Structures are given as structure tokens and as C-alpha cells.
Amino acid sequence: MDWFLFLKYLFIAVCCTLIVWFTIKIGFRSSTDIEAVPPEPEVLPGDDSRSTVLRRLYWNFTAVLIVVPTLLLVLGTTLQTAAWNQPVTLTLAGALLLIWGMSFWTGMLAFPDPVQKTELTDFSAFHEGQIPDEPFRAQPSESEGTSDD
Amino acid sequence: MTETVLLLLGMLGLLFMVLVLSFTLSELAYPLSETGFKARLLCAVRRIAHAQKQIRNRSDQYLLLFSLLCSLLMFCLYPVLYTIFSTRTGSLSSQSELVTCRFAPLLFLGLLNLLQIAGEVSLAITERRRIASISLILNAFFWLPLLLAWAAVVAYLPVYSSHAVQGGHTSLPLIVLQPAGTFALILAWMAPYLLINACPDRRVSPVQNWLRELRLVTGILVLDLVAVSPSCFFPLGEKSTGMQFGELAASLVFILVLVVLVLRLRVFLQRCSGFDPERLWKLILWLALIALTASFFAFHLLGMSDPLMHVLLNFSLLAIWAGFLLPKANLKRLTTIAKHNSTPLIEDQT
Question: Which end of chain A lies in a sparser environment, N or C, as judged by fewer CB atoms within 10 Å?
């Protein structure tokens, strides 16, 4: 696929988008039988306790770091049959270890069990909102991290 | 010239079918108002047109248009994807071309992943004030499983280099050779759809709902092609007609399997009240990481050139994931607790 072919496909896609959107918007607008939807009250996302926000910020930061070794691994597919003690393979192994390490260390792979000990009898107590916070490691970046998302 | 016209006509027909399918699927979110197929289709389109008029916010309109553009571009690139994934030649082209070079399948799959991420994120931004659990999708770490699954699958795509695997030849498709990675790719691709539809108290807005169903249909088309595409163990040269027919039949069957899988998963997650989206995300992340490690070990450290050994390794890893990690998501127990706790809710569902 050369570049102009891609541009052609992009152009076709843009035309199709506009055609589909405005055909629906203009062609089918006689709709008296559908009940008018009342304007919805806007609800802000609810689960923003401070620890959740900080954890998500921390995980976002880690995700950006994980992208780099992953792309390195993708580059390494051209050297699939190199010997295991070649420097490239060793580097790739290091990248893989880094990925595992980062995702373990930040708690991305941990399954906290909030409902493990609750019996059916004290189920109402569980619904009162005693869902314990997930084990969130105190990180040095926590002090300056502010809720920005 | 005739080939181009035929291709255009075929794509137009396919686009029409995809649109009709997406309208039908989007009407499923509402209680049955009409009975006939055509009446329901018209009702769905009118509902969408009505909701389009109510979107006053201009940036929302542009974001929705952009999301539609992403899924339609994915659809328009489908024939290119088909030619890239279905032909395997050993020669390199010397022309100055964009992605016909050695890494075409790799790059193309990455491009489609980016289109998927852009479309879903722009769709989610317009709905973020309406659905509480959507803020997960807008995070960077949510898309990590998709990236890792891409990296795991890429090792099995036919990439032509002097170090490419030499050894046993087989015509097994990718889904058999690398089941863990392909399954992770499918799950990560469909995760936003599943998460948003599993949210119990969401307000269904018709336009976004329709766009999401359209993204589901085009995504299934693309994933199907990737899953049944020949791998790096595929023998060079022309394919026989019988093999082509077999591939076509396999892809048709796999499309059906994918549709049923996604719709059943959606119903299952809707039944789990109190279901935590983050747990599903963690499950997919585990699976993607396991698949990535498996492809690294198989190709770089062990240097396995026998395709059946790859099948054995990946299937056993998938079984390990299903046995040890799937129970940790507590999906089953949440269902039973919900049954004990709120029987009337279950009763009117069934």
C-alpha cells in the first residue's frame, strides 16, 4: 500500500462518515412517535476517593514506563533465532523482567479480596460501604501527586 | 478496472450489512417496541436521528464523528489488511511503499490497535459524565493489555527477516498456534464494550450505543482476519483453492463464534451485580503478560521450530490462566450473592 492509496482510503472513510452521519440525521428526522428524552442530569464520576485517584495516577505513570520495554520486545521479533546468550536476547530478557517487575511492584497484578470474609449474615454490613481500600503502597511520588484527572 | 469496481461494490454491500447489523444490535438495549425486523430497524434509526438532534455540544459532535471515522477507516482498510495477511511471499518489494515492506502485518495490526484506542477514547469522553465506571477507560493503564497482547501476537506474524524461524511448516492459523495471545487480544479489544454494557445503572444514549455496536462489528471483522491468518510457519508460495475455501469457511465460523462469545459475555457480566471492572482488567492484563512471556521464551530462549510445541506450550498456559487466575475474579460468587441478596431483581430479569 503506497502513501497515496492510504490517502485515498482515508478520503473514502471521511466521505462515508459524513454520508452515514448526515443521512441518519436528515433522512430520518420525522420522529414524533419516539418519546422525548428529558435532559439528563450530569453526574460526575463517583468513585474518586483520594486513594483511587492517586493509585490511578501512579499506574498511568507506570504504564508509560512499561510501553518502552514492550516496544523493545516488538523490535526484537526480527532476531527470533539468535543464540540465547547474544546481547540482544539478554537485553530483551531484561526488558521482559522489567515489565513483570513493574507490574508486580505497583500492584497491578494483585487481586485484593474485599468480600473474602463476609458471610451472608452480615451482608448488610458489607453494603454499608466497608469495602477496604486495596493495599496501596506508599510511594515517594504520593506526596506531590495531586488529583489531576 | 473491473476488479476495482467489483471491490467497491462488494465493500459497499458489506458496509450496508454492517450498518444494518449495528442498528439491530443497538435496538437490543431497549425493550421490545416493534415486532417486525424492518419496523425495528426503522425505529432504531429514528431513535438515533432523534438523539443526534439533541446533542447541542459542538465538541461532543466532533468527537462522535471522529469515533465514527475511526471505525469506518478500520472498515475501509479491510481489503488491504486481507491482502497483507493472506499472501505470503518471500521477496521484498523495492518500491517506496508505506507498509508493504517486511513488517507490514506488524505495523498494520499496530495501526488498527491505535485506531481502536482513539475511537473508544473519543467515544468515552462524550459519555464520561453519564456513566461512572467509564473513567477507567480514559486511563493509560487500561490499554496496557492491548499493547502487550499485540506484542505477544506479533511474534507469530510472518515477518520476513534473515533470522525468521526456519523449521516445521504448518498451515495452522494464529488462534491455534498462540491461543493465549489471541484470546488476550480479543478480550482487550472488546473490554470497553463489555465494561460499559455491564454497568447496571447506566443511561443508554442512542448515538453512543449505536457507535459502540458499530465498533463491535468492525472490530470483530478485523479480529477474525487476524485470528485465522497464516502464521510465520506457513509455507511459502501460492495457496491451493481448497485451502482458500477452507480458510474462508473457518473465518465465517469464527465470526459467528466471536459474536456469540461477546454477546454471552455481555449478558453474563450484566447478571453479576456488583461486578468490579478493575478485576476484569487485571485478568486480561495477566493473560496478556503470560502470552508475551510465552512468545519470548518460545522464540528467543528455547528457539522452538516445531509448531506443535508452540501449540502445546500456549494451550497449557491458557489452561493455567483459566484454572488459577479466573477464579480470583470472583465473578461466580458475586452472582450467587446477588441471587441471595436481591431475589426480586433477578426475578424480573429472568
Answer: C
Which of B76, B285, B290 should we substitute to test contact with A (largest number of A Cβ atoms within 10 Å)? B76
Q: What's the rounded Cα separation, in Å, for the pair B285 and B68?
A: 27
pLDDT, tens digit (0-9, with 9 covering 90-100), for A102-120: 999 988 888 876 654 444 4
Please tell me the distance in Å from B265's CA to the nearest CA on chain A: 21
**Residues B76-125: tens digit of each pLDDT:** 988 888 887 776 655 555 555 555 567 788 888 899 999 999 999 999 98
What gap in Å lies between CA B208 and CA B205, rounded to an integer? 6
Residue type at A135 in one-letter notation = P
Sign of CA dihedral B112, B118, B124, B126: negative
The verdict on a CB contact (< 8 Å) between B49 and A25 is yes
Nearest CA in chain A to B279: A111
Higher pLDDT, A147 or B242: B242
Q: Kindly state the helix (H) or strand (E) to which residue B182 belongs, with its residue range.
A: helix B179-198
Chain B CB within 8 Å of residue A63 CB = yes
For residue B166, which residues of chain A lie inside 8 Å, CB to CB?
Answer: 81
CA distances from B17 to A16, B252, B256 (A): 14, 15, 15
Q: Which residues of B touch A47 (CB under 8 A)?
A: 132-133, 135
Closest-CA residue of A relative to B75 is A13
Phi, psi at B272, each rounded to 5°: -75, 100
Q: With contact defined as beta carbons under 8 Å apart, do B128 and B135 qualify?
A: yes
Please indicate whether, in this complex, the C-beta atoms of B159 and A21 are within 8 angstroms of each other. no
Q: B173 has which bridge partners?
A: B230
